Amino acid sequence: MVTVSLCMIVRNEEKVLSRCLDSVHDLIDEIIIVDTGSTDKTKEIAARYTDKIYDRAWIDDFADARNYSFSFATMDYIMWLDADDYLKELDRAKLKALKDSLDTEVDSVVMSYHLAFDAYGNPLFMSRRNRIVKRSRQFKWYNPVHEYLHVDGNYYLTDIAVSHDRVHTDTGRNLRILEQIVKQEGEVSGRDVFYYANELADAGKNAEAVEQYLRFLEYPVEYFEDNLMACARLSACYHQLGNHDLKLSILLQSMIYDVPRADFCCSIGQCFLDQEELNKAIFWFNLALQQELPQNHFGVLNLICWTWLPHFQLCICYGLKGELDLAYEHNEKALKYLPNDENLLQNKEKLEQALQAEGG
Fold first, then answer.
1. Keywords of this protein's UniProt record, alphabetized (predicted)?
2. Residue 3: is it exposed, middle or buried by C-beta count within 10 angstroms (0-12/13-18/19+)?
3. Of 65, 159, 66, nearest to 113 (Cα)?
4. Are 228 and 294 in contact (CB under 8 A)?
5. Residuewise pLDDT in 10s, the chain (360 residues)
6. Cα distances (angstroms) measured from residue 97 to each of 46, 80, 94, 154, 344
7. What are the backbone dihedrals phi and psi of residue 201, each rounded to the nearest 5 degrees, phi first?
8. Are 192 and 117 contained in the same domain?
9. Rounded to whole angstroms, what are the CA distances from 310 to 56, 285, 286, 287, 313?
10. The CATH number of the domain where 177 resides is what?
11. Which terminus of the chain has a lower count of CB atoms within 10 Å, N or C?
């Protein structure tokens, strides 16, 4: 059995820290908390679980704080979590089994990251993270904002999921840090251009975000997941700006970086549905249904595009074409994923009535 240190950085997390630590404290061997300036009861709560609590002055650099937390680890492996992360019971059991059986030749354990959930508890968005890493490899964090852990060697892909439920956020913090870099250095570069564009888009500065996304996409491809996400986010900016031709164009550009993915197929299909080009929309929604969920992808995936959404959209398309049998068929398939969804149940009732009337 391997040993694991949990390393966390926190600040004013009194509302969520107990939930996080309750979900993992009995599964790991050491808890290290680095506090970057809490003014609430965060440190008091942390003290219930560990005496390894350290202060680190906040210098607008997440990588600095995470590397500092890693420096105190003493176990075979290091696991990292944010305070608003936690493990559900099924994932707790999987983590325990993993810890009991992990091959020590593994340098990094990859876990799913569930970022949002629907009303039924199904994950809506997911990515993957190098969540547990071998301490002796001395992997480091990079980037002051949107920090990433640079990992190489042998990795083990698991189906263990860390669930994320954000309670509070400083929506302007990351943008302020990046704008300070721009002020000091004239511009951001590399992956920071992508992150800067994301922060501008989140702040509603769509025209400025477009400039940065286009600039980023001119660079040689380093992490194709970033290019895919840039296409997705840029298309949303074009949508907000009312430029639907450029929205469709940038969605199609995503296929330069990877084979067609269900989420992009659905977005392209929606573009044609909005223009009432139903046959084209049907083609793309059907293509979405043919795509498998990427297994080695670390970008954000919109999971509903691999489950019920294409069926729902095909129900709409076939309904508008008057092909009610096909509309009903796809609504039924969507209901298998969301059996209690009111919209789908209403569709079912209306389509059954229409089909009955059509049959005479």
1. Transferase
2. middle
3. 159
4. no
5. 999 999 999 999 999 999 999 999 999 999 999 999 999 999 999 999 999 999 999 999 999 999 999 999 999 999 999 999 999 999 999 999 999 999 999 999 999 999 999 988 899 999 999 999 999 999 999 988 889 999 999 999 999 999 999 776 666 888 888 888 888 888 888 888 999 999 999 999 999 999 999 999 999 999 999 999 999 999 999 999 999 999 999 999 999 999 999 999 999 999 999 999 999 999 999 999 999 999 888 889 999 999 999 999 999 999 999 999 999 999 999 999 999 999 999 999 999 999 998 875
6. 26, 18, 5, 19, 39
7. -65, -45
8. no
9. 48, 5, 7, 9, 5
10. 1.25.40.10
11. C
What phi, psi does 80 have (nearest 5°)? -125, 145
Long-range CB contacts (< 8 A, 24+ apart) of 205-212? 206/237, 206/240, 206/241, 207/237, 207/241, 209/233, 209/234, 209/237, 210/234, 210/237, 210/238, 210/241
The one-letter amino acid code at 287 reads: L
Cβ–Cβ < 8 Å for 126, 175:
no
| Same domain (yes/no): 25, 156 | yes
Residue tagged 């400025």 (tokens): 208
User: Is the domain of 158 the same as that of 263?
Assistant: no
Residues 289, 312 contacting (CB under 8 angstroms) = no
Q: Which domain holds residue 77?
A: 4-164
Hey, how many other C-beta atoms are within 10 angstroms of the C-beta on 292? 8
Write out the two tokens for 157.
């892909």
The reply to whether 349 falls in a domain is: no
Regarding whether 218 and 141 lie in a shared domain, the answer is no
